[in-house]
Design goal:
heterodimer; A: alpha/beta; D-Maltodextrin-Binding Protein, domain 2; 2 domains; five-stranded mixed β-sheet; four-stranded mixed β-sheet; 44% helix; B: mainly alpha; MetI-like fold; globular
Chain lengths: 427, 322
């Protein structure tokens, strides 16, 4: 496997040379160093195809999958590279695409799917045999105009992780299932002197995403209709925004969360200084490592009366094939392996992802048992995934406006108005 | 006749006895030419790097700023100056401009005011001097992004934050360092000053050590006290160092990105949002390369103007002081 192979440097054989040769070597070396390196797939004399793959899962997650694939397909060698999500991955892929050096297979994320699809940089995968087991929700997420452009194998969903030491102290036997009971629980926890609930305000907060998802009542056309001008953020978002902002107005969540990062909130929870926090499955290993004796649970976000509970979450990024690749067949072979029960099992084991393919039942952390079904059923909502365009500028505006709401500088309805204004400017 | 004219001397060419009279054989002239060519060839790699990594990107940014290029597709349209017209149309841009200027001015002034006295102290002989110098220089070594993350825990607005814990130990109330706009701006500037003051003190120290001791000794013999020696000898002799230091502080301040991003994420709201953050966000995250390029072009011109003005003023002050 090439990621584990040390290749000799192309300059390792250069001998000492006279001055003039040295000058020439310096010039040639600098030119070589500055020249772009093509990652186009190639076939060597032995008939082995080199397939380049750019991922945002790192080597520890992907290496077992790739090794198993190469063992089964000895005529295809994977040239692996990765960049961490999200911004760094997006910018690296963007640079590689614009310079014509993108990998044969790469990850399509919600943040760049519009540009990749509209720029025709990816091959449609609709109708391919390996897409049969891909969940409908995942196909919809990475589809456009009746075509599917990326193969998403898993979904994620956020919830509330709670410290049973604190929740038992206020008599919580089962997690609350409606919003009012959740507010009562927060009030009881605050009364005991412990901080009740924190969530990350450096992104659109998970509880607000869940409230908006629930208010859409399973109508996933709402965001599209906002973009089409048939309705507005003001009409659709104001009520969830007011429900969410009341947490601060009523002293159920500290405004100090504005100045906290996700890591700091996790640190507060792991050290028992806050009873509950909004997060995803990715935080569980850290909590267990930092606080091995903590007894904690994971519950879905409660919904206001009359609404169905939704999780903040989305289909995970999908594997896409570069439309400029010379190795489309090899790329499809690789995707077929990734979607196979063996490939999905290996990925599930190395990443702990909640996979959603039809022919494999994933092993998930027992703590997450209450959220597995909503995730596999697609009862998840994430605004920046659902918005068809301008995801980042809308998200940036939303986050800044929400922070201003918490600081008392704006009203909840102003957030929706600000989003409508940005959408109008961008359109 | 031109054929008999001596070859021009390249910089660094040695002229031996009897040379340079115009009577040398042509063969020697050709040898000089080869030496000059060799000099230039040695400069070529640097020149190539400059052209490829600076000149071409600047020219391309200038071109993209006149288009609606999104960073992906090679098909884009010429839109004239439309991107420039939209530059400061939104709150984020204006806030970014204001905080970038505030950060630059504040860090330049405060670092200069702290680094010079610190350098004077570090120039004295005392036990543990090398350790103290190293301690002050240390914040310049780690990545500022790492420092931002660490300071995020130190300045946490919760009671568990390091500074707040100290305050509470003495009976005070927690301070929302990063949770209110004013304190968040103050915190970013504070960390910016902390991370740079030691490095600039070492820069001043290098210049201080170049001041001839005779000047100070003569001043002491003439009866000058410490304050007079500082203002009439030390400070004037540090004028060139101040020019260099302030140039670095100004350009570094105007380009600041990683510290606010890691410490506050540009918030609360847009209170610590910077222009560089806006350029990166527009160009990469929002795929508006044209708009981001327009901002980058304007930003580069503004930096150029500010730096040129600073250099002109500093040189003038240097001449006046000296």
């Amino acid at each position: 496997m090439s990621i584990l192979t040390n290749r000799p440097s192309p300059t390792s054989g250069v001998r000492r040379a006279p001055a003039r040769v040295g000058i020439a070597a310096a010039v040639a070396g600098s030119l070589l160093a500055l020249s772009a390196c093509s990652t186009d797939g190639e076939q060597d004399a032995g008939g082995t195809t080199t397939l380049s793959f750019f991922s945002w899962d790192g080597e520890p997650v992907m290496a077992p999958v790739i090794e198993a694939f190469e063992e089964q397909h000895q005529d295809i060698q994977i040239e692996f590279s990765s960049a961490p999500p999200v911004q760094e991955y997006i910018s690296t892929l963007q640079t590689r695409i614009s310079s014509g050096t993108a990998a044969d297979v790469f990850i399509m994320a919600a943040e760049n799917k519009t540009n990749l699809i509209e720029g025709e940089f990816v091959v449609p995968l609709t109708g391919e045999p390996f897409m049969e087991n891909i969940a409908e929700f995942n196909q919809q997420t990475y589809g456009a105009d009746g075509e599917v452009y990326a193969m998403s194998l898993s979904s994620w969903g956020g919830g509330i992780v709670y410290n049973r030491e604190h929740t038992d102290a206020v008599g919580m036997s089962d997690p609350p299932t409606d919003w009012d009971a959740f507010r009562d629980l927060l009030a009881d926890l605050e009364d005991t002197g412990v901080a009740a609930f924190y969530e990350n305000l450096q992104e659109i907060p998970m509880s607000l995403q869940a409230l908006v998802g629930g208010s859409y009542e399973s109508d996933f056309t709402v965001d599209q209709r906002i973009f089409d001008g048939e309705t507005t953020f003001e009409a659709e978002w104001t009520e969830p925004l007011q429900t969410w902002a009341a947490l601060f107005e009523d002293g159920l969540m500290s405004p100090d969360v504005v100045g906290l990062s996700g890591d700091q909130i996790l640190d507060e929870f792991a050290n028992g200084r806050v009873a509950m926090m909004a997060t995803g499955p990715w935080s569980l290993p850290t909590i267990r490592e930092t606080a091995p004796d903590m007894d904690f649970g994971f519950m879905p976000f409660p919904a206001p009366a009359g609404q169905e509970a939704y999780l903040p979450g989305a289909a995970s990024p999908g594997y896409a094939i570069n439309s400029a690749t010379d190795n489309e067949e090899a790329a499809k072979t690789f995707l077929a392996f990734l979607a196979s029960p063996e490939g999905v099992q290996l990925y599930n084991e190395s990443s702990s992802a909640i996979t959603t393919t039809g022919d494999f039942e994933p092993t998930v952390d027992p703590v997450l048992e209450d959220v597995v079904e909503p995730i596999r059923e697609g009862r998840v909502y994430l605004a920046q995934i659902s918005w068809p365009r301008y995801e980042d500028v809308l998200m940036t505006t939303a986050v800044a406006s929400l922070q201003q709401v918490i600081l008392g500088q704006r009203e909840p309805a102003d957030v929706a108005t600000a989003l409508d204004e940005v959408l109008e400017q961008q359109s | 006749m031109s054929q008999q004219a001596p070859a021009p001397l390249a910089v660094g060419d040695r002229v031996g006895p009897g040379e340079g009279t115009g009577t040398e054989p042509r063969a020697r002239g050709r040898r000089w030419d080869r030496a000059a060519v060799a000099d230039r060839l040695f400069l070529l790699p640097v020149g190539v790097v400059f052209v490829v990594l600076f000149l071409i990107p600047v020219i391309r940014s200038g071109w993209w700023s006149l288009t609606n290029y999104n960073g992906y597709t090679p098909d884009y349209d010429f839109v004239g100056l439309a991107n420039y017209g939209r530059l400061f149309s939104d709150t984020a841009m204006v806030s970014g401009f204001v905080f970038t200027l505030l950060y630059t001015v504040a860090t330049t002034l405060v670092v200069t005011c702290l680094a010079i006295p610190l350098a004077v102290v570090l120039n004295r002989k005392f036990i543990g001097r090398n350790f103290v110098r190293s301690a002050f220089f240390f914040p310049a070594i780690p990545s500022i992004a790492v420092l931002g993350l660490v300071w995020g825990f130190i300045l946490s607005p919760l009671g568990s934050g390091v500074i707040n814990r100290v305050i509470e130990t003495f009976g005070g109330a927690s301070v929302p360092w990063l949770s209110t706009p004013g304190l968040a701006r103050f915190s970013v500037i504070l960390v910016g000053v902390w991370s740079q003051v030691g490095w600039h003190a070492i820069l001043y120290l290098a210049y201080l050590q170049a001041i001839p001791e005779e000047l100070t000794e003569v001043a002491i013999i003439d009866g000058a006290n410490g304050r007079q020696r500082f203002f009439h000898i030390t400070l004037p002799m540090l004028a060139p160092a101040m020019t260099v230091s302030q140039l670095l502080l100004l350009t570094g301040g105007l380009k600041v990105y990683d510290l606010p991003v890691t410490l506050t994420g540009g918030g609360p709201g847009y209170s610590t949002f910077t222009l560089t953050q806006a350029i990166i966000q527009r160009g990469i995250a929002q795929s508006e390369f044209g708009q981001a390029s327009a901002l980058a072009v304007v930003f580069m011109l503004v930096i150029g103007l500010i730096v040129a003005a600073q250099l002109a003023v500093a040189r003038r002050l240097e001449r006046r002081i000296q």
